[in-house]
Write a structure and sequence with these properties.
Length: 96
């Protein structure tokens, strides 16, 4: 009897881009657990919209946690024009 070949399920580690997204997600999760929200936010943003919906959905949830906690914290006062500009650009990047 001939055996049918079972199609191999695609793993997230098979695709190099998906593997990189997983690495960004894991690094962002570590930063979130260490309360380094400013480092975690861009890592989760890199994962959004990727091919693997489950990973993208989880990153969106963790990103919203970072944004909510970050917005509740008092922000340092900008002292120079350059610092004020950088702060404004970072707010625009997250949609604020």
């Amino acid at each position: 009897m001939a055996q049918k070949a079972n199609p191999k399920k695609s793993s997230i580690t098979d695709d190099p881009r998906a593997s990189q997204a997983l690495q960004h997600y894991e690094t962002g999760l570590r930063a979130l657990q260490e309360h380094k929200f400013d480092k975690a936010k861009p890592l989760f943003q890199k994962v959004l919209g990727r091919r693997h919906k489950e990973l993208s959905d989880r990153a969106a949830i963790h990103l919203s946690i970072c944004i909510n906690i970050w917005s509740a914290r008092p922000h340092p006062v900008s002292r120079t024009v350059e610092e004020h500009f950088d702060y404004a650009v970072s707010l625009m990047n997250v949609g604020d």
